[in-house]
Amino acid sequence: MELATVLDRLAVDTLVTEYARAVVAGDLEACRPLCVPGAVLDDPVLDGREEPQGCAAPRQRTRGEVPRPYQHLIVNRRVTFERRDGEVGDLAVVDADFVTPMRGHGPGRSADTVRGGRYRMRGVRTAGGWRLSEVVAEAMWQGGAPSADRS
Questions:
Q1: Mind listing the pLDDT tens digit of every residue in the chain (151 residues)?
Q2: What is the DSSP string of 106-137?
């Protein structure tokens, strides 16, 4: 494998990690620069919210709202690149699994829950580096157990 391919793979992997971190943080400003204008995002973790500027991001929390503690783990990543004349091209596809453990607390949230599924992400090389052009997630399972009273 050539050094350029390894560097591209690391850049795309970092992009996916930053997307997961922005989702968990609910940080719209951290999410926007990860996407190209007009990016398509279909992600149940985002509850279908989209931003007209291109990159969807989690709903901004309102004052006084208690956030549900959770993590969003994107794992088992498989990165493939379009090839042109034997060289890595400007398009990448990431197939990955996600696992989202959520801690139950607060009114109506008496159970810990875990959701899992699969991502298909597409990235494009831009002058500013790799950016997401499409994120499609399919929730495949969800489970949980009653949690102890934490009040």
A1: 689 889 999 999 999 999 998 888 777 677 789 999 888 888 766 654 444 345 554 444 444 444 467 788 999 999 999 987 777 789 999 999 999 888 776 665 567 888 899 999 999 999 999 999 999 989 899 887 554 544 4
A2: STT--EEEEEEEEEEEEEEEETTEEEEEEEEE
